[in-house]
Amino acid sequence: MATIYRLATLMLFCFIQLSFSELVQEQPLVLKYHNGPLLKGKITVNLIWYGKFTPIQRSIIVDFISSLSSDKATMVPSTSSWWKITEKYKGGSSTLAVGKQILLENYPLGKFLKNPHLSALASKFNGVDTINVILTSKDVAVEGFCMRCGTHGSTRVGRGPVRGTYIWVGNSETQCPGQCAWPFHQPIYGPQTPPLVAPNGDVGVDGMIINLATLLGNTVTNPFNNGYFQGPANAPLEAVSACTGMFGSGSYPGYPGKVLVEKSTGASYNANGINGRKYLLPAMWDPQTSTCKTLM
């Protein structure tokens, strides 16, 4: 009788554990499509450099954007294979090409920019199939910086209903690097794991690459707040921001996951670009599997 009681108790315990596991099982991440237009086809990326950037810093970012749609970035894993995930979103592929560039090294709007300043800078280039990217140097403060590492939005083209898109990303080398340049800097919160070595030797710019990649992915899949996202439209989880902090397999809060390490420099990366560049790119939500997909 005692044996039967112990067996029944064990079966009940296992049932409770199983039921509890089912209750707490992580639900699949689903980004709903809200029937709005996406950015597809040939997209020109114009760059507005606000503040002082060295030629090397500019080349790191230009090479990254060029790598996303280049057939020359063939070494696996590649930046172009990461960008191909966007093809799985409704409407087909988008091809990015660097367009015009403006250097504003004399800080014409000062060293503290508010949101209207970003819209004004974005309007320096007009075009339908364009993304105007504003890149601010490490000595430029931007409204909301540190609460956010960058943002994307849209502006009217002329007086009609047509809209263009823009992105802002700031260099966080001296402004909250523990948040906006992680995992290349010690994190502000959470487990204090050692920072990774930046693949291009520049913590601020390599951090910008992560944030720029995030916003490019978010922009083409949700350009006008009615594309793919989860949650409220004014604070959405988007294609890449839904996968924040994930760079390789086995990632969890405070740990970026398994990535590659360059033997000669100790630098961490998960994507190869053109001109021998290496980058660390965040995971992107895959609409076919409803999972955050990494290159590693």
From TrEMBL:
<keyword id="KW-0964">Secreted</keyword>
<keyword id="KW-0052">Apoplast</keyword>
<feature type="signal peptide">
    <location>
        <begin position="1"/>
        <end position="21"/>
    </location>
</feature>
<dbReference type="InterPro" id="IPR006766">
    <property type="entry name" value="EXORDIUM-like"/>
</dbReference>
<comment type="similarity">
    <text>Belongs to the EXORDIUM family.</text>
</comment>
<keyword id="KW-0732">Signal</keyword>
<protein>
    <recommendedName>
        <fullName>Protein EXORDIUM-like 2</fullName>
    </recommendedName>
</protein>
<dbReference type="Pfam" id="PF04674">
    <property type="entry name" value="Phi_1"/>
</dbReference>
<dbReference type="GO" id="GO:0048046">
    <property type="term" value="C:apoplast"/>
</dbReference>
